[in-house]
Amino acid sequence: MKKLFALALVLCMLMGTSASAESAETVIVLSDDQITVDGSAITEDTSAPVHLARVIETHEDVPENLKDVENRVVTITDGGVYRLSGTASDIQIAVKAGDDDDVRLILDNVDLTCRTASVIAIYSAHDPRIAGEYGVTIELAAGSDNRITGSHNSAEDPEPEFDGAIGSQVSLGFEGSGSLTVDADNEGVEVAGGHMTINGGVFHISACDDPLNVSEDGVGVLTVNDGYLYSAVKPLEGGEGDGIDSNGWIVFNGGTAINLAHPASGDGGIDSDMGSSINGGVIVGAGNMYDPIESASGQLFMMLEFGQATNDLVVVTDAQNQPVFAYDFPHDYMYIAFSTPDLKDGETYHVYLGGEIEGTVQDGLYTAITSYVPGTQMQHGDGNARQRMTMAAPDMGGLQPGGNVPEMPQGGFGGQAPDMGGQFDMNAYMAALAQLDLNELLKGADLNELLKGKDLNSLLTGFAVTDLLTDDQIKAVFGDTDISILDRGGRGMGGGFGGPRGMESSADVATTDFVLTKDNTGFTNVVAAE
User: Fold this and answer.
1) pTM exceeding 0.85
2) Of 57, 348, 392, 509, which sits with the fewest C-beta atoms within 10 Å of its C-beta?
3) Euclidean distance between the first and final Cα of the chain, in Å?
């Protein structure tokens, strides 16, 4: 009996030791006066797992008045859990861990600024290279309020380029229940290699370019599973940027995500090169470019193409005149997409601009609506639709390891890439396009009628030849070249492969009934009802 008790005691001690080791944290406290690691001043000995370096950025994007600024770089080289707190300026957290090292950064009330480079720069660590998984975690501590104000740097050999206030060269995940505000002078949070996954937290990200970006072409998957996300491009003159962007895929599985593009550029609220899917959550996207959402999405969504850009309150009511969606847009947008679990297949909805509404509002999104007095009722259709030229990208197989599409999370695209065809001769198409004489082809055409309801600024960023020419004219110019691929979605002229695709008219005759089904989610020429 004593032997059994002794054995149990040893096992408990071993388990306790193991649990203690797993929960051990390195505590880093930051300030402008000093930096401490577990209570002691940080060392500049580069052999230490956490050490200090001092760097003056010399890249071309550094303004003249900041060329002498010295950044203190807190460098982490080992796997483990690191809790950061405090307020500091001209500081960077750099992760340069081994390929087998998992790193967790717990942000616990930090306010960090770096004027000439990324505030958090993740160079290396473990990367499983599977969508939805990651070796580096940024955790927002419960009850914490964190702020990152950061810049970016240019590519300098042999160092990789970091475009965002938070940048990573490996897959990155966000967890926790605290809040994070990011104010960026270029991109907000960018993963240049691998995937980004959001599993929790409250985010407000404003940037001069894409607030959230996964930029590995044809590979990266940006997944939102939970949390609250508000990502918006700053409305600066001459600016651009998508509300949320991926050079691979975007998958929304839950949470709340509001994604606003630059209001004066041809960018989309939800922009992906390989496809976007909505399987759950409350999702809003607004921009001035049509970015298709997969019809195979697990949750219904609605896409509204307005005849004129609007910055008004948009309210959608169901057959019982109860609001199912209400958002007060801060800027003018042409394309507005949204999805909520309340949308029902086959339901008839009505769309209004303005009116009087009461309820809980956050960042323009109304929930728990108690009353609504309708404003201007809207109609759609009338045979008008904005058609734009789109071209398919070449086969993406060579850009991916082994030529395979990464496995998607549950509810994604099942590992299947969009069919690129292969019969389309791009050289022949471009040669034929170069020979177009629009003056001759459009001689005698009534341009006022032809361009009725179309936004010229958007149209000229990528018009559709099929929208301007008759079938006989297309035959005369392109001969037997198969141009049907131009009507396939998602690979366009604006912004990588994720350019605009034309929406077919939602109705030949104008109607105020917006009948939503899985195969009928887009509504064109949304204007005030006559």
Assistant:
1) no
2) 509
3) 90
